[in-house]
C-alpha cells in the first residue's frame, strides 16, 4: 500500500511544469498550467489538481490541443478584449490578455474578456481570486463538452459549465465561490468511478436516459443532470451563451473530438467580467461586504464558500502538500526524472 509524503508547493509546481514541457508545451504554457494545477492540489480541490495531469497529456498526445499555440489578443472596444487561444490552453490566453484587460477595467470602471478556441481543464476560482485581491469584483464562466442533459431534455447539450465569482473583503481573503452547474463535476464522477463509490441520487442518467447512481454508467454514454433542476439548467444555458455565442467559440454540443481518441480537455470559451466596485460608490465596497458577512455569521453560518480552500492553503503551505508516494513516483517518471 502506498504511503503519503508532503511536498512543497514550488517543488510540485516545478515537477508538473517539467511534465507538461516534456509532453509538448512551450515553457510559458507549461508554467501557468502547472502553477494552477499545483494551486488546486494545495487548496484541496482534488478533482482539478494532480489527478488532471493525465488528461493534459492525453490531449497533447492526441493532437487535440496545441501546447505551442501563441494566443492572439485583440483590443476591440474601450471595455472589451477578445482572445483567440489558437487551439491552445485557456490559461496562457488569459495571461496574455491580462494587462490590457485590467487597464481597461481601471480606466472605464468595467471590462469584459472573451476567450475562444481554447481548452480549460482547471478549477475556475484561481482565475478570479487574484482579480479580487487587486480590488475588483470578478465573474467568470466557461462552457465545455456536452456532458449534461438540459432540464426537460433527453440528450446531453450543455457542458458542466462552471461559474466563479470573487469580491474583495476588508482585511480578509476575498469572498470566492466556484461551482459546476451540473449536479457534480465530471472530475468527481471520474474519481467516484476510480474509487468504486456511488453517486448521489439525482446526479446522472445512463446511456438509456434512466436515472443511475453508477458513475461508470454516466461515463459510458450516460450524462449528468444540472443541479437545482430548471434553475441550474438556466444557468448552464446562460453559460453556453456567454462562453460560446458571445466569445465566438463553439457550443458544448458542437465540439467533436471523435477524431482524437483519448483527448480529455474540453474545447471551450470563457467569459470574464471585471468591475471596479468603488467607482462612484457611496460607501466603501469591501466594508459593505463585511457587513453582510457579519450578518451571515450572526445567523449561524460557520462556513463561507472558499473558506475550506483557504484553510487547506494555510495548512499545506506550512506542512507541505500531501501526495501518495506511488503517485509522486509516477509524476517523476512522467517528467523524465
Ligand atoms: P463544489 O461543490 O466542491 O464547491 C462549490 C462551491 O461551494 C465552492 O466555492 C465551495 O467552497 C463552496 N461550498 C461547498 N460546500 C459548502 C458549504 N457547506 N458551505 C459553504 N460553501 C460551500 O464545486 P463543484 O464540485 O461543482 O466544482 C468543483 C470544481 O470543478 C470547481 O473548482 C470548478 O471550477 C471545477 N470545474 C471546472 C470546469 C471547467 O470547465 N474547467 C467544469 C466543471 C467544474 P470551497 O471551495 O471552500 O469548498
Ligand atoms: O470536472 O466537469 C469537470 C470539468 C470539465 C472541464 C474541466 N473540468
UniProtKB/TrEMBL annotation:
Pfam families: Ldh_2
Keyword Oxidoreductase set for record: yes
Keyword check for Oxidoreductase: yes
Annotated transmembrane regions: none
Keywords: Oxidoreductase
PANTHER family, alphabetized: MALATE DEHYDROGENASE (PTHR11091:SF0), OXIDOREDUCTASE-RELATED (PTHR11091)
Protein name per the record: Lactate dehydrogenase
Amino acid at each position: 500500500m502506498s504511503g503519503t509524503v508532503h511536498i512543497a508547493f514550488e517543488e510540485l509546481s516545478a515537477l508538473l511544469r517539467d511534465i507538461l514541457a516534456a509532453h509538448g508545451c512551450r515553457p510559458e504554457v507549461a508554467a501557468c498550467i502547472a502553477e494552477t494545477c499545483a494551486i488546486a492540489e494545495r487548496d484541496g480541490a482534488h478533482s482539478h489538481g494532480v489527478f488532471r495531469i493525465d488528461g493534459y497529456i492525453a490531449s497533447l498526445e492526441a493532437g487535440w490541443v496545441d501546447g505551442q499555440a501563441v494566443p492572439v489578443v485583440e483590443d476591440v472596444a474601450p471595455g472589451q478584449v477578445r482572445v483567440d487561444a489558437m487551439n491552445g490552453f485557456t490559461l496562457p490566453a488569459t495571461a496574455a490578455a491580462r494587462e490590457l484587460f485590467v487597464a481597461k477595467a481601471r480606466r472605464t470602471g468595467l471590462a469584459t474578456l472573451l476567450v475562444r478556441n481554447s481548452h480549460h481543464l482547471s478549477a475556475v476560482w484561481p482565475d478570479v481570486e487574484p482579480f479580487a485581491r487587486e480590488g475588483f469584483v470578478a465573474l467568470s464562466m466557461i462552457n465545455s463538452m456536452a456532458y449534461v442533459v438540459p432540464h426537460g431534455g433527453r440528450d446531453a447539450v450543455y457542458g458542466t459549465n462552471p461559474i466563479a465569482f470573487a469580491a474583495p473583503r476588508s482585511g480578509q481573503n476575498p469572498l470566492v465561490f466556484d461551482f459546476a452547474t451540473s449536479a457534480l463535476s465530471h472530475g468527481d464522477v471520474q474519481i467516484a468511478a476510480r474509487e468504486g463509490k456511488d453517486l448521489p441520487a439525482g446526479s446522472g442518467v445512463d446511456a438509456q436516459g434512466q436515472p443511475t447512481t453508477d458513475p461508470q454508467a454516466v461515463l459510458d454514454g450516460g450524462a449528468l443532470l444540472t443541479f437545482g433542476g430548471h434553475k441550474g439548467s438556466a444557468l448552464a444555458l446562460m453559460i453556453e451563451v456567454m462562453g460560446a455565442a458571445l466569445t465566438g467559440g463553439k457550443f458544448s454540443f458542437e465540439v467533436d473530438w471523435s477524431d482524437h481518441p483519448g483527448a480529455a480537455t474540453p474545447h471551450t470559451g470563457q467569459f470574464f467580467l471585471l468591475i471596479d466596485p468603488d467607482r462612484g460608490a457611496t460607501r466603501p465596497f469591501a466594508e459593505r461586504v463585511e457587513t453582510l458577512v457579519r450578518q451571515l455569521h450572526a445567523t449561524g453560518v460557520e462556513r463561507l464558500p472558499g473558506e475550506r480552500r483557504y484553510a487547506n492553503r494555510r495548512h499545506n503551505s506550512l506542512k507541505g502538500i500531501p501526495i501518495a508516494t506511488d503517485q509522486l513516483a509516477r509524476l517523476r517518471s512522467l517528467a523524465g526524472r
